[in-house]
């Protein structure tokens, strides 16, 4: 392994580090460290993380900043480790009040929801605490549950279903926890809840609206006759839509239901034909479980010309060369379009029509 000369050590000015391979012996040391440790996957990204840590150490006088970066990296590393073993299993993230008590109608709905999701082949992700979270975990069972908890001075502790579970994670920071909730989800469902539930609802909507989270079902569940989400939607319509702060198409991002059966049906419907999407350069590739009839394809091309780049097109085909790193889905048919990168509500409408074709 290359060593720094004595006159390059801390009693001399710091080495000016770059993410490009222009760091001389420092690059050699990092390469040697990874080789000595062994088993490093994707070394180009590990190298940049090491460099980022070194640069942060040079640039930050405040220990609190470094502690935050350190905790964040460690929490996200453990998150990836826990979830990676279940990458091929669809998961539904469920939010709701920690204060809902066992025996309340909405608690029993949440328990049934967890049970039906498990029976349909899904795993569930909850905040791992009491109330709605515990109900969903009870319904799904320990083996089909993740608990994504947060350290708080009150109220939040692991529920009995996920306590001690290898799929239970406790976070220091809410922002890391939010990444886990939404990065790993194939659908999101919300029962009535407090500030935290509403925060997660708006976070998910913001990510869907801006395209920072690829499309997924966002289901708002209330008990029969319940008004929680209808009152919320009324506020969104009266105060946001009527003022021109959002568009009517933004209402495609969520669906309100009053039964567990309907909630599960809506999630299943989203994946009836649609599988996933990926951006390849400027092109958006929609991967489908099955092709659609030719007449339906012609209709889609006409109805959704408005979401294309000027002069862009929409074509049917097979996997692009850049998708070779996903061999397990290389066989799926593709809809490839020159998407304008802004009309994500309309993109959701396109996916819905693909599923219904």
Architecture overview:
The protein is an alpha/beta fold and 357 residues long. The chain folds into three domains: 6-83, no CATH class; 86-270, Rossmann fold; 274-356. The protein has eleven helices and eleven strands. Strands 4-3-2-1-5-6-7 form a seven-stranded parallel sheet, sandwiched between helices. The protein has a four-stranded antiparallel sheet with strand order 8-9-11-10. The longest helix is centred in the N-terminal third of the chain and has 22 residues, at 63-84. It is globular. The mean pLDDT is 94.
Task: Describe the protein's topology.
Blueprint: H1 25-37, H2 43-59, H3 63-84, E1 91-95, H4 105-119, E2 123-126, H5 132-140, E3 145-150, E4 168-171, H6 174-183, E5 187-190, H7 195-210, E6 218-221, H8 228-241, E7 255-257, H9 260-270, E8 274-280, E9 283-288, H10 294-303, E10 314-317, E11 334-337, H11 344-356
Parallel strand pairs: 1-2, 1-5, 2-3, 3-4, 5-6, 6-7
Antiparallel strand pairs: 8-9, 9-11, 10-11
Helix pairs in contact: 4-5, 4-9
Order of helices and strands: HHHEHEHEEHEHEHEHEEHEEH
What helical percentage do the residues reach? 40-55%
The parts where pLDDT drops under 50 for at least 5 residues are: none
* Order of adjacent strands in the largest pleated sheet: 4-3-2-1-5-6-7
CATH structural class of the largest domain:
Alpha Beta
Mean pLDDT: 94
Sheet bearing the most strands, described? 7 strands, parallel
CATH architecture descriptor name of the largest domain: 3-Layer(aba) Sandwich
Beta percentage is 5-15%
CATH topology of the largest domain: Rossmann fold
* Secondary structure: number of strands: 11
Number of helices: 11
Distance between the termini: 60 Å
Q: What best-fitting shape do the alpha-carbon axes yield?
A: globular
- Give the tally of structural domains: 3
Radius of gyration: 24 Å
Class based on secondary structure composition and strand pairing: alpha/beta
């Amino acid at each position: 392994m290359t060593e720094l000369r004595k006159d390059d050590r801390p009693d001399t000015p710091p080495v000016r580090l770059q993410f490009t391979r222009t760091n001389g012996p420092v690059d050699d040391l990092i390469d040697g460290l990874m080789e000595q440790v062994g088993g490093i996957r994707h070394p180009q990204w590990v190298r940049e993380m090491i460099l980022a840590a070194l640069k942060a150490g040079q640039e930050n006088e405040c220990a609190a900043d470094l502690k935050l970066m350190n905790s964040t990296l460690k929490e996200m590393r453990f998150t990836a480790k826990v979830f990676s073993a279940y990458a091929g299993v669809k998961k539904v993230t469920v939010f709701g009040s920690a204060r809902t008590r066992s025996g309340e109608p909405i608690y029993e709905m949440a328990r049934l929801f967890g049970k039906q999701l498990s029976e349909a082949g899904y795993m569930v992700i909850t905040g791992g605490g009491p109330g709605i979270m515990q109900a969903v975990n009870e319904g799904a069972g320990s083996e089909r549950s993740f608990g994504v908890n947060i350290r708080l001075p009150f109220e939040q502790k692991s529920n009995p279903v996920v306590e001690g579970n290898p799929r239970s994670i406790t976070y220091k920071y809410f922002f890391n926890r939010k990444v886990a909730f939404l990065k790993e989800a194939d659908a999101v469902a919300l029962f009535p809840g407090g500030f935290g539930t509403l925060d997660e609802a708006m976070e998910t909507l913001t990510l869907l609206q801006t395209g920072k989270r690829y499309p997924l079902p966002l289901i708002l569940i209330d008990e029969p006759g319940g008004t929680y989400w209808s009152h919320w939607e009324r506020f969104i319509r009266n105060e946001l839509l009527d003022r021109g702060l959002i568009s009517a198409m933004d209402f495609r991002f969520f669906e309100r239901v009053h039964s567990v059966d309907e909630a599960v049906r809506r999630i299943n419907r989203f994946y009836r034909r649609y599988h996933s999407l990926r951006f390849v350069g400027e092109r958006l590739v929609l991967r489908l479980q099955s092709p659609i009839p030719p007449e339906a394809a012609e209709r889609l091309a006409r109805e959704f010309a408005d979401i294309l780049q000027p002069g862009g097109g929409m074509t049917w085909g097979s996997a692009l060369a850049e998708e070779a790193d996903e061999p397990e889905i290389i066989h799926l048919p593709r809809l490839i379009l020159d998407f304008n990168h802004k009309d994500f509500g309309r993109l959701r409408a396109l996916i819905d029509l693909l599923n219904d074709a």
